[in-house]
C-alpha cells in the first residue's frame, strides 16, 4: 500500500483519545529501531516501563500488532507509527525487518494461505456450493417462520407491556435469527428494543418496524415468484449477499464520483463504515467497509474529493451498494448541486423506497438550507430551505452549535442520511469547500430512534 495521508491515518483511530495520543507519538524522538519496506512498517516506542513496545503494521491491510497492553485496535503506538510514516517516509524504505517482525508476517501469511486454500476448495466444487446455499435457505425459512409467529404474538397481545420488557426479550428472537443465518433480520429485531423508550409516538414507530419485518417474512415465503432483482434485495435485507468476486465481474459504472458523506459506527463486534458517493446524473452509491474489533478499517475515501473510479453495483431493484473495481486520480471537490429544496429531496427518497421497501436510510444532499436551533415549536435542531420546509435532526445530535457556527448564519449545503423521520448530518459545504462533520471538531451521533417527527412546512 502506498503511503497514507495523515487524514487517512487519523480515520483509523478507534476514538478521539487514541488519535490525540498518536499525534504526540508521531515524532522520531519517541522511537528507536524504525524501519519499513513495501510490506510492513515497524519500530519500538518507549512507554512508561523499562522495555519499549514493539509495534508493527502490515501495510497490505493495515493490521497492527503491538506488545503494549492496550485493547484498542489499532493502539496509539500503531497510529503514531503510521502518522510518523505519513510525515516522513525516509526511515521506512527498504529496511531489513528484525526477527520479531519476520515471525509475525510469516505467521500471518501462513494463516492467509490456509484460508485461501480452503476457499478455493469450496468454490471449486459447484455441487458443494449448491448444497451450502440450499442448507442456508432451509435455515432461513425455518427462522423466518418462527419470526412470523413471534410477530403475530406481539400484535395479538398488544404493545402495552412492551415498554417494560428487558433487552433479553428481544435478544432471544435475534439470537434465533443469527442461528438461522439471517443476520440482517436479527439486527432489525435488536433495534426494536430501543423503540419503546424513544418517546412520544413510539407505538407507531414500532408498528412500522414490525411491518417491515413482516414484509421480509412474507416476501421470503414467495421468493421464487419475485423478479430476480427483488429477490436479491430481499436476500440483502436478510444479510445474504453475493460474494465480492461475482459483483466485481459484473458491469462497471465509470465516474467521476464525488465523496459526499461518511460515517463509522459499531454493530455488535464489527466496525461498519458507510461512504456515500454521488455520480453522473445524480446516481447515489454506497461503499460499505467492515472490520472486526481487533482490526482497523481500510483507508477511507476522503470526503470532499472527486474520485475517477469504476464502481460495480450489487444486483438490486435499487442499485445502491457498490464495490470499487478501479480507482484513479482524485481532486478536491467544492460541493454537489444537490436538491434545490426539501420537497424534491423527499420525492427522490419516496421513489427509492418504492423500489426497495426495506430501505433503512438514504442520502439527501440539500442546497441552501439554514440551521435552526431548538426552540418555539420544536425541541430539536432543524434545517430549513428557502421555501420554509424543514427537516428535523436527531434528538441525540450533538453538533448543532458547531454546525450553526460553521454556517455563520448563512445558508449552506448539507448531506445527511434520511431514515424517514430525521436527517443525520454527515457533511456540510459552502463556497470554501465541502467538509466531513468529523473534521469540524464534533462527532456525529446516529440514534436508534428519535422522538421528533421529521418534516414540517
Automatic annotation (TrEMBL):
Domain of life according to the entry: Bacteria
Record's keyword annotation contains Transmembrane helix: no
Residue span of region Disordered: 113-136
Record keywords, A-Z: Metal-binding, Zinc, Zinc-finger
An MF annotation (GO) of this entry: zinc ion binding
UniProt name for this protein: SWIM-type domain-containing protein
Keyword Nucleus on entry: no
Pfam families reported for this sequence: SWIM (PF04434)
Record-annotated SWIM-type domain positions: 53-86
Coiled-coil positions: none
